[in-house]
Amino acid sequence: MGKKKYYVVWKGKKTGVFSSWLECKKQIHSYEGAQYKAFAVKKEAEIAFKKSYNDYKGINTKKKVLSNSEKEKYGTPILESISVDAACSGNPGIMEYRGVLTHNKKEIFKMGPFKNGTNNIGEFLALVHGIALLKSKKIKNTPIYSDSKIAIGWVRQKRCKTNIQFNNSNKDILELIKRAENWLQNNPIEISILKWETKAWGEIPADFGRK
Fold first, then answer.
1. In this structure, are residues 119 and 105 in contact, taking their beta carbons and an 8 Å threshold?
2. Distance CA 149, CA 80 (A)
3. Which residues contact residue 175 at a Cβ distance below 8 angstroms, ignoring those fewer than 6 apart?
4. Could you give the C-alpha distances from 51 to 2, 29, 41, 113, 210, in angstroms and in order?
5. What are phi and psi for residue 28, nearest 5 degrees?
6. Is 95 exposed, middle or buried (0-12, 13-18, 19+ CB in 10 A)?
7. Residue 33 host element (H or E)
C-alpha cells in the first residue's frame, strides 16, 4: 500500500486540501486549467493552499529528498539529449505532450490538447514522436529521456496497452496511437531510451509543472 498523500486544489470545481486522490479527482476531472498538486505531509499541504500554485509549479513535493551520497548512485543525466513528458488534467481528461532539448529546455515539439486522454498515452506518444523525429534527422547518438516506466515498456513492446474507452470525443488520440504502433512495427529503434531519475535529478526538463 502506498504512502498517504494530501492533495491541494487551487483551481477546480472545489478548492482546498483533500486527503485522497479520489476526492481530488472529483474536483479536477473535466475542469480545464485545473491547478493541483500532491504533498506527502498534511501541514505542508495546508501551508501550500494559502499560497499560489505558481509557488509550487515544477517542484517535487511528493518524494523523499535524497542525500548527496544517494544522488551520486544515479550519476548525472546526459545533457545532449531529448526529454519528453505529458500532462493530463483528469484521468481521462485533457491531455497534451511535448519534447524539449534537455540542456536548455527548448521546446522542439508539442501536441494537444486532446480530449479524454490519459497521462500514460501521452507519455507513450511523446516517446514515439521523439524517436521518429531523431530518425527523420538521421540522428542515432542522441538518447531520449522519459520519466515513465510504463511508457518506456509500451514502446519496447511496440504497443500502447491502454484500457481507455474510445469514442468520437477521443478518436483523434486513437488515430495517433495506431500511427505510433504502426511506426514502431516498421522501424527499428536505433537510439537509447533512458529513464529520467526524478528522485535524484528533479523533474524532467519537459515537465509541464502541473503535478
1. no
2. 21
3. none
4. 27, 22, 16, 28, 15
5. -105, -15
6. buried
7. none
CB contact set of 104 (below 8 Å; sequence gap of 6+): none
Alpha-helical segments (H) within 42-90: 42-49, 68-72
- Are 145 and 195 a contacting pair, CB within 8 Å? yes
* Other Cβ atoms within 10 Å of 45 Cβ, number: 21
Mean pLDDT within 36-62: 82
Cell numbers 491502454: residue:
162
**Exposure class string for 158-178: b at 16+ Cβ within 10 A, else e:** bebebebeeeeebeebbebbe
pLDDT over 70, % of the chain: 93
Across-strand partners of 98?
85, 110
pLDDT tens-digit series, residues 57-111: 766 666 555 677 777 888 899 999 999 999 988 778 899 999 999 999 999 999 9
| Length of the chain as a residue count | 211
Q: What does pLDDT average to over the chain?
A: 90
Return the C-alpha torsion angle 197, 35, 96, 151, nearest 10: 30
